[in-house]
């Protein structure tokens, strides 16, 4: 009997990748508008390479971009990048299509909800609070707060323990076959792979760990109800067998 | 003959103190709204003390606030503070009353303009660009970029050299008697003290270094014109004396 549905945050509940892309493009455009003497393609590709090397939470993207482009350290250009980046992030932060309908439907039927996500705790909470997703979820588990990352079983075990459910009473929904699906399956949870965004065609080696694959989150409530109906039928027939 | 007018940035062109106050109050309110179990007065006063000790550019105000209040490290509360703080800063960033009229008037009459400010270069440029003050100014001199702070003569000397004027051809306008007025006077510039904000009654030991005191920036163009008229009269009478 499923009691709890866990969701991943980035690119499952929040449209993170699309937003980051827009924010980075607007940053480069604004830097050029304020005098950065490089064409858009060159600067943007250099920024992507840099993020690839230093990670997306690195705090000095635009300073390093200037160094990589052999340009002088000009705080005006950096500020232009920072402004456009933040403005975009705050203005265009969106949930993935269907998120609210899905969460409402799950709550209406009585499922308890949680978030299991990697990332910086304050940045993750910023997205949750800015989108007012907070009231839907009983608990939020963030790797950098707990000291363990998906797909390590410990983060899933901690979540199950805190929500007081057994693995077979929980479903994990996420866009990453490796961290979300393989991770949750290891501890015995049911898994729904949300085929979305930049991981829609990656990590396919772990496809076997997905019990279900969906292209829209709105399929999730039906699947979860289906799992419980199956179980009811099974226990019904067991009763009859007695 | 005055050719250049320099302005300080914080609390002279930009209403920084008022904005920071609002941002901090909104941050505390939002933290309480999201569950911070402390009353507003206690939390706000603790935050002010903390900022007083660690400085306003310290990056972990809200984390440290929780520690000081003996509360657990809760990233949700920190995020609530960060969100409200940033939203306020971006939404309510304003120039001081009369700034644009003053700058336009000075430009119209043909004065060249510059900014001489302390602080973090990227944060200072953020304010300048967000308020679109950039086009008014020929040069911006920021202490943390140049490696020397007001009132050290070097920052004023660098500014004069870059703008290619002599000290007596320049006026400094600022809200701080110590860093702006005493600093500029040391190198021989004319000085206008803008008596405004939290420094309106401080550092009065340095009052003697102010050639003029104004309560509104809109008095600046008249004063600068007055300085040049005086000079013209003087050189006229010198001609007559020949």
Automatic annotation (TrEMBL), chains A, B:
<keyword id="KW-0460">Magnesium</keyword>
<dbReference type="InterPro" id="IPR036412">
    <property type="entry name" value="HAD-like_sf"/>
</dbReference>
<dbReference type="GO" id="GO:0046872">
    <property type="term" value="F:metal ion binding"/>
</dbReference>
<dbReference type="InterPro" id="IPR006549">
    <property type="entry name" value="HAD-SF_hydro_IIIA"/>
</dbReference>
<dbReference type="InterPro" id="IPR023214">
    <property type="entry name" value="HAD_sf"/>
</dbReference>
<comment type="function">
    <text>Catalyzes the dephosphorylation of D,L-glyceraldehyde 3-phosphate in vitro.</text>
</comment>
<dbReference type="InterPro" id="IPR011950">
    <property type="entry name" value="HAD-SF_hydro_IA_CTE7"/>
</dbReference>
<dbReference type="GO" id="GO:0016791">
    <property type="term" value="F:phosphatase activity"/>
</dbReference>
<comment type="similarity">
    <text>Belongs to the HAD-like hydrolase superfamily.</text>
</comment>
<keyword id="KW-0479">Metal-binding</keyword>
<dbReference type="GO" id="GO:0044281">
    <property type="term" value="P:small molecule metabolic process"/>
</dbReference>
<protein>
    <recommendedName>
        <fullName>Glyceraldehyde 3-phosphate phosphatase</fullName>
    </recommendedName>
</protein>
<dbReference type="Pfam" id="PF00702">
    <property type="entry name" value="Hydrolase"/>
</dbReference>
<dbReference type="InterPro" id="IPR006439">
    <property type="entry name" value="HAD-SF_hydro_IA"/>
</dbReference>
<dbReference type="InterPro" id="IPR051400">
    <property type="entry name" value="HAD-like_hydrolase"/>
</dbReference>
<keyword id="KW-0378">Hydrolase</keyword>
């Amino acid at each position: 009997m499923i009691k709890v549905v866990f969701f991943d945050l980035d690119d499952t509940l929040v449209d993170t990748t699309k937003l980051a892309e827009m924010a980075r493009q607007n940053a480069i455009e604004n830097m050029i508008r304020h005098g950065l003497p490089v064409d858009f393609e060159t600067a943007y590709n250099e920024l992507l390479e840099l993020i690839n090397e230093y990670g997306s939470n690195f705090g000095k993207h635009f300073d390093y971009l200037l160094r990589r482009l052999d340009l002088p350290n000009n705080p005006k250009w950096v500020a232009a990048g920072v402004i456009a980046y933040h403005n975009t992030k705050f203005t265009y932060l969106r949930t993935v299509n269907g998120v609210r309908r899905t969460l409402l439907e799950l709550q209406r039927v009585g499922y308890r909800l949680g978030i299991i996500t990697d990332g910086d705790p304050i940045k993750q909470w910023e997205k949750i609070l800015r989108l007012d997703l907070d009231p839907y979820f009983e608990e939020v588990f963030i790797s950098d707060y707990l000291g363990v990352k998906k797909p390590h079983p410990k983060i899933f075990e901690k979540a199950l323990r805190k929500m007081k459910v057994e693995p077979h009473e929980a479903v994990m929904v996420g866009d990453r076959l490796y961290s979300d699906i393989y991770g949750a399956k290891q501890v015995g949870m049911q898994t729904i792979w949300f085929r979305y965004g930049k991981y829609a065609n990656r990590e396919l080696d772990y496809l076997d760990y997905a019990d279900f694959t969906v292209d829209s989150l709105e399929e999730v409530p039906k699947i979860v109800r289906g799992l419980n109906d199956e179980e009811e039928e099974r226990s019904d027939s067991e009763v009859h067998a007695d």
